[in-house]
Specification:
The structure is a single chain. Strands 5-4-3-6-7-9-8 form a 7-stranded mixed beta sheet, with helices on both faces. A two-stranded antiparallel ribbon has the order 1-2. The chain is built from 10 helices and 9 strands. It is globular, with a radius of gyration of 20 Å. Strand 1 and strand 2 form a beta hairpin. The mean pLDDT is about 95. By secondary structure, it is an alpha/beta fold. Bound molecules: S-adenosylmethionine. The site of S-adenosylmethionine has 22 residues, from helix 6, strand 4 and helix 8.
């Protein structure tokens, strides 16, 4: 409820927490009380995520539009941008970065912000997701640096073979059988954003196999994973043979959340 009120009124989390808003004679909002009540009922009855109700999420410094066509970007994913910044060994000015499975465009925007001279190539198989991502890029005034492509993973990027400085991806990684067990809110998110096949690693395997063709020597491979997948992904990268300095990176909860490697 706090989150909904913060998004649609001028109240901040402190005044909600302390209850100081009760001293105000009026609270500014762009929604009527009846509209707010309707949103809240949808939240309760359909377990719709609040972010979809208000079509908004805050991610890093961005205020992003989200609709049920895109995954709601998670706070733990924010760290992927810091990992890129801290681990990019390449200093040439003309850089090509790739965000595979861009969804709302969150990662692409984060990359465009830290690499203002680079070109960011953002791919998604979903036309509707790309519409949202484009809108977010325009609203964040970063659309000049980002190109959007509809297609499957590397498929629309053949022209970048051997030229990519870094590939960043938060692919679908949940094992199919686990999806019905997730909290009901997740059922409103696009299936293709979640379902990583039988063991959750179907798309990650593809990204391990195909990225070396596109990355420059020393280029970064950085992927978000779920709890329990780290050892297998490290093994897949080792077996592929074209990666070096493979490492696991933790999120703020201490979970092995990302795998980083470099193209030999
Ligand atoms: C877990 S979501 C990540 C969205 C966003 N990058 C984020 O971190 O919030 C995975 C995304 O991959 C996209 N996707 C799934 N299969 C794909 C494919 N074969 N090619 C391109 N994108 C795909 C989905 O549409 C979805 O937007």
């Amino acid at each position: 409820m706090d989150w909904l009120l913060q998004t649609v009124t001028n109240l901040d989390s402190l005044s909600l927490r302390l209850g100081t808003f009760q001293n105000l004679t009026y609270i500014q909002s762009d929604r009527s009380l009846a509209e707010l009540e309707k949103l809240w009922q949808q939240r309760l009855q359909k377990r719709l995520p609040v972010q979809y109700l208000v079509e908004t999420v805050f991610w890093r410094r961005f205020r992003l539009k989200v609709t049920p066509a895109v995954l709601i970007p998670r706070p733990e994913t924010e760290l992927i941008i810091d990992l890129v910044r801290e681990n990019n060994p390449i200093s040439q000015p003309e850089q090509h970065w790739v965000d595979l499975g861009t969804g709302s465009g969150a990662i692409a925007l984060g990359l465009a912000e830290i690499f203002p001279q680079a070109t960011i190539h953002a791919v998604d198989c979903s036309h509707d997701a790309l519409e949202v991502a484009r809108e977010n890029a325009i609203d964040s005034k970063l659309d000049r640096n980002i190109r959007f492509y509809q297609g499957s993973w590397w498929e629309p990027l053949h022209f970048l073979e051997g030229k990519v400085t870094g590939m960043v991806s938060n692919p679908p990684y949940i094992p199919t059988a686990e999806i019905p067990k997730l909290q009901p809110e997740v059922a409103h998110e696009p299936r293709q954003a979640l379902d990583g096949g039988k063991d959750g690693l179907e798309d990650i395997r593809y990204l391990v196999e195909n990225a070396p063709q596109y990355l420059v020597s020393g280029g970064i491979w950085l992927v978000e994973i779920m709890l329990g997948q780290a050892d297998t992904v490290v093994e897949l990268l080792k077996r592929q043979g074209k990666y070096s300095k493979i490492k696991k990176c933790h999120d703020l909860n201490g979970i092995e959340r990302f795998i980083l490697a470099y193209r030999r």
